[in-house]
Amino acid sequence: MNIFLKTLKWFFFSGIVVSLVTGIAIGSYLWHLSQGLPENIDIELDKRNDVLPTVLFDRDGKQIGELFLQRRVVISYESFPPHLIQALLASEDSRYFSHFGIDPIRMLKAAIVNFEAGDFVQGASTLTQQTARLFLLTQEKKLVRKIREILLSLKMESKFDKQQIITLYLNKVFFGNAEGVEASTQGYFGKHTEELTLSESALLVGLLPAPSRFNPNKNPELAIQRRNQVLFRMAEERFISHEEMIEAQAEPLNLSRMSDSTSDATAHYVEHVRRYLIEKYGYDTLYTGGLKVHLAMDLDYQLYAQEALRSGLEDLTHRQGYQGPIKSILPQEDGQLAQTEMAEHIGDVPLSIGTVVRGVVRKVDAEKGIAQIQLRGEQFGLLEWEHLKEWQRTWQSETQNYTWVQSMSDMLAVGDVIEVELQDYASSEGLFRLKLHQVPKVNGGIIALNPINGHVYAMSGGYDYTASEFNRSTQAVRQPGSAFKPIVYAAALDTGYTLNSRLVDSPRAYKTDNRIFGEQEIWKPKNYGNKLEGSVTLRSALVKSLNLPTIGLVEDLGPQRLISYSRKLGISASMDKNLTIGLGSFSVTLEEMVEAYGVLANRGQRVDPVFVIKIEDVHGNILEENGNPTEKIISEETAFLITDAMRDVVDHGTGVRAKAIGRPSAGKTGTTNDSKDAWYIGFIPQLLTGVYVGYDNPKSMGGTETGSRAAAPIWVDFMKNAVANLATEQFSQPPGVITVKVHESGRRAAPCDPPEQTFYEHYRVGTEPATDNLIHNLCDSQQRLAASEAENKLEL
Q: Residue 562: which CATH number?
């Protein structure tokens, strides 16, 4: 018995010792873990918004973007609408106000569910734990991090009340587009948190488990499903009635116009402004100073411009034919394609009808005319030869001609990564019907501005900013070709020529400084299509875009005079002192060409392009305001005369496509050798728009891809939308211009001239053909001759 008692005692005291040692060890370990817990969490509650983003607005006050290092705006608990808190509790932690930071009951339930499922399918983290997790930015192992999370949760519950913890959470959690609910609300809905509706609150809370997956801009259907789940949970928890749930679930996504697509459309414009701001105000002020920048941009015009540019480049790409896969995946040793590599190139864009996605060619059956394309996940689609035929004609820039693809197997091979558009879904086959789509390799730019004050309403520098930040409107320097001719002809008018002056369109040859085998090279310029007109008027030479008469003008004016004239109009590009500059052989930006045309459109007044109208600091003080005064560069008469000739370019010449906007406009096309560059710059009295199209590494776009075909349609597409709400205005004739009826020989028309030999022409006052007795004598002579012939007939 004594031995038994001694043994029992020994076990009892040993148990106590072991328990004490274990307790001390665990306590020491927990104390050690607690030493690294954040101590400054309370600072977050009093944190002020001293790091403020620069906010960008369009000309009408619509917010179009922000420039920031950390997009976050801290707000108080009072700014949270009740249904936002209720949505958060229903979705994340319905027992929040009854537990002490951890929820043993919820942990037990989750353990049972996970055990029965044989996998981790349900979490047990409370809202306090989730808040703690936001402050534990460590790389520790999962178990250690979980213990620290629990310790911090308990610490927070003892230090803060429940409202303060929710405030910490909602001001720090990531919603997919920003950190914190206020910045996120502004981004998604263009409003403040306190203005959120029930449906919008549920949508935001629904993002929390997977912000990227449920992003309403990228995956609207998934976002709505998730929102509706949150609303259902709110009804279950009796936060809202069944009727309120049904009503909120029926609401559409009322997202702010500042969506991802809007960000893409404004990206080149915003980046252009960002560079200006950082150069003038510095890095810190730009990203933390809370500037308010009012742009000249009209958001509607900007969206029109980007859509027109993208559509035009896609149409051009379609005319060029299939240009090959994005990438070709090589098969492994077993002949199969690596699933991981395919998934990497396919991406995770949701599959919905009308969407363009990437796929990998898995099988090609040329005899049946079908190709099997693997899409996202285990989904597949069929691409049929009928949908590929339209891509048969393919432009080969190396050989400068088109080839015809005869078979599907000549276009596609297993492993090719291609883009396809989802046409429809055959549920019986479980397959999508596909149509080939190509991202354009050719690119371009578009600028639209008010010629009177220089305000740049729209500017895009390329098809896709995310693919290339290079700005083809302000950074690309390309040859303007015939788009420069209006400048040449304006200079001629300012040196005594008239629109009715006769020019010679005949072969020319010039010795150059280049030598071939020791002999001087001979330059023999030609007109487009090698046509010759003989004697033509200055107006006709511009309308028909004739090269030979233009070179004659440059020869008469002198290259240096033309260069100086161009400088006055805003063209700073380097220009060689030779005759070729008249044909636009130098390289210049679209922005500078549009600025030069602006002088013509603004009656001879030059105004610099304005991207930023006004900048205010965080206190509302105006830091700069751009009134942008005009400067008289050329006479109003010259500007009107060239504009009138350019109206004929639209009515009868290479710009005839521009007539489609249904109102008077003036413009000029430009095309360089081998169709490497295509331009169209045109205007109405209230709006000037320029378009450039070409490869970043210049090469031929196709033998028929002129300014008229490649660039003008983009101009028309944009202008049709842009002018919809503008009054139709005429180009007003200034007092210094007179309209005179003239004979085709160049003299004033005589009353007796046949109508088919006369027309009306505009002249600067003092340069019109003289009225003299010779004309009347001519008519008298013709009348006497006619009378004499009549008498002779009577005598006979």
A: 3.40.710.10
